[in-house]
Design a protein that fits this description.
single chain, 182 residues, mainly beta, Pnp Oxidase, Chain A, eight-stranded antiparallel sheet, three-stranded antiparallel sheet, 14% helix
Amino acid sequence: MYKEVKTAEAMGYLSTKPTMIITTLHASKIVNAGVFGAYTNLSPSQVGAAIASDSHTYANILRTREFVINIPGAGLVKTLAILASDIPPERSELDEAGLTVKKGIVLETPAIAECAAAVEFRFEREVPIGLHRFMIGQACGGWIRTDCLDADGKIDIFKARVLKDFKYPRPLYVLPGEVIEG
C-alpha cells in the first residue's frame, strides 16, 4: 500500500538524507539505477546531487530531463553492491538485482517498488564541480509505503529502516542505532 502525491509534498520522504538509489532511463527505455550517499536540500522542493560526468545516470538525466530518488531500507543492503557495479546500458541494474519497477506517478522514469519511498524530479540545471556535476532537480511527485509514514506525513526512519553511508567504498551503512555491512 502506497501513499502517492503529485506535488513537492513528497520532499518529506527525503527528510533524513539517507543512502539513495537514483533511477533514470537509458535511450532504449532500460532502467538505470545508481547508488548515491548524499544529496543536498536546496529549497522545500529542490535537491542537488553530485553525479560523475562520465556516468550513465548523468547522461540519462541530461537526455530525459528527469530522475527519481528511491530510498531503500535495510532489507535491500545486499542489492546496493549490485546496483553500484559496472553494468552495461543494455542491461538493467534492477533486473540484475532482482528488483521490481514501479511506474512513475508524474514522470516516465520509474521507481523501485521494494524501496520505502521515492521522489520524482524534473531536472533544472547542473553546476560543474571537478569530475562531477551538481544536478539540481525540482520535486514533482512521489510515493511512500504507508507503513513507513510518521505522524507528520514524512518518512519514519525506524519503520523504514533507512540506511546512511558509513564507510565508502567498503559497504558499511548505519541504521538508527546500529551499523550493518552490505
